[in-house]
Amino acid sequence: MRKTAFCRYLFLATCLVTSLTSITQALDTKTLTVVVNGITHHKGDICLRIYSNSEGFPLDSTGGIESKCTKITGSSQKTVFSDLKPGNYAVVVLDDQRGDRQLHRNFWGIPKDGFGISRNPRVSMGTGTPKFSDASFPFKNNTTINIAMKYSLDP
User: Fold this and answer.
1) What is the pLDDT of residue 21?
2) Cα separation, 86 vs 140, whole angstroms
3) Number of domains, the chain
4) Domain range holding 35?
5) In sequence order, what DSSP letters do the residues of 133-145 get, joined into one string?
6) Is residue 143 in a domain?
7) 17: left (phi over 0), alpha (psi -120 to 50) or beta
8) Residue 5 reports pLDDT greater than 70
9) CA-CA distance, 136 to 80, in Å (whole number)?
10) CB–CB of 29/86 below 8 Å?
11) What CATH number should be reported for the domain holding residue 42?
């Protein structure tokens, strides 16, 4: 009888610890809302990719930790990413008119597609492609960021 009671107690304690661990992990995740402004097209998709480090940033379309594409619905669009852990992140946006999820560039590497980068760093022939450190921001709590679309390089 004692062995059965002990096994029940042990089972209940294990369930309790597992539940508390899951709750703690769920409470440690946050929501990032990205508002993209200045969209000029009325068709196609707006694609966003979140990077947690410099690996592949910003041109590798297979890098990053999460991505989403949504149909363009106006000149401003909001996308929500849930269940992100606190850390440093950077976001890249693509106005995907071809549906191939790729940033197309000309012979000199200048983007042909609309793009945007978190913290809206200057992008010009002189500055080159922004680094992760230029675009990253600390993410600790539920956060909203605004990204301005660019359809040409900055002067």
Assistant:
1) 44
2) 5
3) 1
4) 30-148
5) HHH-EEE-SSEEE
6) yes
7) alpha
8) no
9) 17
10) no
11) 2.60.40
Quick check: is 5 in a domain? no
- Rounded CA-CA distance 83/1 in Å is 45
Indicate yes or no: pTM above 0.90: no
In a domain, 90, yes or no: yes
Q: Establish if 15 belongs to a structural domain.
A: no
Distance CA 150, CA 120 (A): 9
121 vs 104: CA distance, rounded Å: 20
143-148 and 30-37: which strand pairing?
parallel
* pLDDT tens track for 57-88: 998 877 899 999 999 999 999 999 999 999 99
Report which of 71, 96, 66 is spatially closest to residue 81, judged by C-alpha positions.
Answer: 66
AA identity, residue 39: I
DSSP letters spanning 100-155: S----B-TTS-BSSEEEETT----STTT-SPPHHHH-EEE-SSEEEEEE-BSS---
Report the alpha-carbon distance of residue 69 to residue 80 in Å, rounded: 11
- Predicted local distance difference test score (pLDDT) of residue 14: 53
Distance CA 118, CA 146 (A): 7
